[in-house]
Structure formats: C-alpha cells, structure tokens
Design goal:
Elements: H1 2-25, H2 31-52, H3 60-88
C-alpha cells in the first residue's frame, strides 16, 4: 500500500510543477498543453513507485523524495520536449 502512496506523491509532484508553470506563464488554460504534463505525471508515478517497490521501509522523507522526483520528471520532460521541438524547426 505504501508503494501506491509513493506513486500518488510522485504524480502530484509532477502535476504541481505543471500547474506552477501554467500560473507563471499568465496564459489562459489550454487542456491540450496540459495533457502532455498529465502523461508525464502518470509515467513519473508509475516509474517512481516501481523503483520504491524495492525499498524495505517507507518513511515520510520517502514521500517528499517521491514528490520531488515527480516534479523533476515533469520539468525535465518539458525541457527535453522543448529542445527537440527547437531542433526540428
């Protein structure tokens, strides 16, 4: 059950970063742009939860690390996608 909460924490970290990016941009909300962040959040939740599956004990620090890892997956994925888009132009 702890692994599920770790996955949810990573998912929420990725969603939090995407929402903070949207509020910083001061643009109207476009669901199409948010969909890519949602996909990255799902990937972050699943992959980080599967990585934590091999940990013996889950502590409150583990939830914080999962949240920050999810945030990093979304931020890194956004940067990588932007770099690929720039190269294709």
């Amino acid at each position: 059950m702890d692994v599920t909460y770790i996955g949810i924490s990573a998912f929420l970290g990725a969603i939090a970063v995407s929402l903070l990016g949207w509020t910083e941009s001061q643009e109207p909300f476009v669901p199409r742009k948010f969909a890519s962040s949602l996909i990255r959040a799902i990937i972050a939740g699943v992959s980080i939860a599967s990585a934590f599956n091999y940990v013996e004990s889950v502590t409150p620090v583990s939830y914080l690390l999962a949240f920050l890892s999810g945030a990093g997956v979304d931020a890194g994925g956004h940067r990588i996608a932007g770099a690929i888009r720039a190269r294709l132009k």
